[in-house]
Amino acid sequence: MMASQRPLIDMDGAYELRVCCMGAGYVGGPTMAVIAKFCPRIRVVVVDISAKQIARWNRGDLPIYEPKLEELVAAQRNKNLFFSTEIDRNIKEADLIFVCVNTPTKATGFGAGAAADTKHVEACARMIAESATSDKIVVEKSTVPVHTAEVLNTVFEANSSTSVHFEVLSNPEFLSEGTAVSDLMDPSRILIGGNSTPSGQKAVETLVSIYEHWVARDKIITTNVWSSELSKLVANAFLAQRISSMNSISALCEATGADVSEVARAVGTDPRIGDKFLQVSVGFGGSCFQKDILNLVYLAESCHLPQVAAYWRSVVDMNEYQKNRFSKLIVSKLFHSVTNKKIAILGFAYKKDTGDTRETAAAAIIKALVAERANIHIYDPKVEKEDMIDELQYQGLAQCDIETIHVASSPYEATNKAHAIAILTEWTEFTALPYDRIYQDMLKPAFENNINTTPFSFFLTHPTPLSVLIFFFHRHYEIMFDFLKRPTLEDELFKMKFTAKSLLRNAKKCEKNQVAAKAKLKKAIEQGNMEGAKIYATNAIREKNQFLSYLQLSSRIDAVAARVQTAISMGKLKQNMSGVVKGMDHVMDSMNVEKISSTMDQFEKQFEDLDVRSAYMESAMNSTTAGATPADQVDDLIQMVADQNGLVIAGQLDDAGSVGTELPLQASAAPSKTDELSARLAALRKA
Ligand SMILES: NC(=O)C1=CN([C@@H]2O[C@H](COP(=O)(O)OP(=O)(O)OC[C@H]3O[C@@H](n4cnc5c(N)ncnc54)[C@H](O)[C@@H]3O)[C@@H](O)[C@H]2O)C=CC1
Ligand SMILES: O=C(O)[C@H]1O[C@H](OP(=O)(O)OP(=O)(O)OC[C@H]2O[C@@H](n3ccc(=O)[nH]c3=O)[C@H](O)[C@@H]2O)[C@H](O)[C@@H](O)[C@@H]1O
């Protein structure tokens, strides 16, 4: 008699149905715990070839981390949920067997690197065929290539007695790690593929009746077996394709000044497109996306559809490009060399709320940084060291390189004396770390003091190219690539304040030089050296002019900064400000006085419309830096210094000639006003 035709009451009356699940991993464990919770009259036994895995499920020290799973398992364990290594016995006793084993990408042989390795699924089929003494419904829950059900049927036919009937169903799983329990309790849909034969349809109804304990019937989709098998691959390929699409657009945004999060929002609000899975990241990870797309590619190639294969392969290629782009970015932001630099990696899991590291983008980034001889320190709240090492090995890191990597037991240990931090998993705890404290313990370049004392939270939202701290927030583009995006007004505000301070310090230097030049002038007059006096007088006047230039530009920038600050806090900024802000970044970096001055002009012009314009020094730079020092100013100064010091210079001034015609060698080599100013500003930038 077919399992589906048996009365749903077990011989001892205790259970309606006996379920066995082969594979106690990320899918098998949580899925069976949820079935056990909602179906108290169904007995569920999860079996695995790994005794270690089963022991952990039984001990309560679960082999996987998944929110809410521990409580769920504890509530059902040894009631109607059991974990066992007795595979043969549990197959015999089961009416329905879920196959939940791993189906990784083939590593060797035909289809290596693309086809799914179904050896574990086939091994399960052989075990079932050998052990079964009564009819079984066998459910493919693993993600498998299309037509795997056919393989199972062939194995069953060849290896079992003719009196036992096997009905194979496809029932792919759509849960996501990190939200597995809630996904299982409230699934978007349940997909069941079965044969159209009466026994096939009966089997479908048996499986439907299990899910109906907690899932509405209209959410349960039934199809033929091949549609179900293929739908799973297509669903994952579509999700991954959205991420790759957005990642590709992120590169375009960086090149054009568009903001990818704004683009994602603008595009995703179209209900035909939807806003899910448009978050830009370092690259998607996880055991399934890449594997399932490659599986689809292999299927297309096997069906002689090269264009279809190439289309889907590009989703994986784009993912590789994004990981690579990101690694290069870290190196370039650390002044093009990470050799012997300590880089703290916060987060190793491929996403938050899971300890799973399979295909994590973190491993690819670490591999690239290790190749550049960086000193890597990793901290992850849930990933164990052995799992990190296994994944790094799997992703091709040599043993000798793995030995150079340190695994830290706290974020503080990882970041202490680090040159940079890369946050690669969006763990919630990373958003609440005391970054000011962490920053204090990090290595810093020779910053100006005001940067060192800037609150750390500033760097979190306003990374600047001056900063050696890098905050890459996996899946949180805003923070991740913030410093690559066009600068925000807040960024510019910071830069303006910094530039204003630098100019002020330069002004002070000029003031000092002016005093020194005047002292030399006095000495020259005393010695009757009128040629020298003219040179020193010229220098003193030039220093004074420069002092004024710096001072006035600094106060002009301060005034604009104050207006920007007010406008930001009042939310009064206009769209057209962004054009000015965009060009601002380079100008401030250049420390070119004329350019800064003209950018300030633009800013002020924009502010006229905002009604926050206030009086400030007009044409400050133009009047103070333009033209040469007039000769009469030089003479006046000499006269003034002579008078102040009771010195007589009558007639000597005319005999000395004009400045610039009879200058001593040293003085004639002195830089022009503009050159000197530029040189000072260049020196200031280097300091
Ligand atoms: N991890 C995920 O989030 C999802 C995975 N899937 C698919 O589900 C399948 C399972 O994935 P995971 O649970 O992540 O794998 P996993 O690697 O966590 O667990 C598989 C388990 O099967 C066991 N196993 C292997 N051969 C066995 C055999 N002959 N008899 C008994 N146990 C055996 C292994 O020891 C392991 O504990 C894969 O096909 C995967 O593509 C589908 C949806 C989500
Ligand atoms: O077949 C599977 O194994 C499962 O694969 C994914 O689930 P999962 O890999 O657990 O996690 P996701 O939330 O899909 O994230 C996968 C990767 O994509 C990245 N991601 C996700 C969303 C996004 O917008 N951007 C993005 O980069 C994540 O950071 C992560 O690295 C699917 O979401 C599940 O439906 C499917 O059942």
TrEMBL record:
NCBIfam families annotated for this entry? NDP-sugDHase
Family to which the UniProt record says this protein belongs: Belongs to the UDP-glucose/GDP-mannose dehydrogenase family.
Report one GO cellular component: nucleus
Q: Does the keyword Lipid metabolism apply?
A: no
- Return the EC number: 1.1.1.22
Picking any one GO molecular function of the record gives: NAD binding
This chain belongs to the protein called: UDP-glucose 6-dehydrogenase
GO terms in the biological process aspect are:
glycosaminoglycan biosynthetic process; UDP-glucuronate biosynthetic process; vacuolar transport
Which residue numbers delimit the UDP-glucose/GDP-mannose dehydrogenase C-terminal domain? 344-449
List the InterPro entries hit by this protein, alphabetically: 6-PGluconate_DH-like_C_sf, NAD(P)-bd_dom_sf, Snf7_fam, UDP-Glc/GDP-Man, UDP-Glc/GDP-Man_DH_C, UDP-Glc/GDP-Man_DH_C_sf, UDP-Glc/GDP-Man_DH_dimer, UDP-Glc/GDP-Man_DH_N
Q: Which organism is it from?
A: Thraustotheca clavata
* Major enzyme class: oxidoreductase
This enzyme catalyses: UDP-alpha-D-glucose + 2 NAD(+) + H2O = UDP-alpha-D-glucuronate + 2 NADH + 3 H(+)
Kindly list the positions annotated as binding NAD(+). Answer: 23-28, 48, 101-105, 142-143, 177, 288-291, 358
Pathway the protein takes part in: Nucleotide-sugar biosynthesis; UDP-alpha-D-glucuronate biosynthesis; UDP-alpha-D-glucuronate from UDP-alpha-D-glucose: step 1/1
> Where are the active-site residues found?
C288
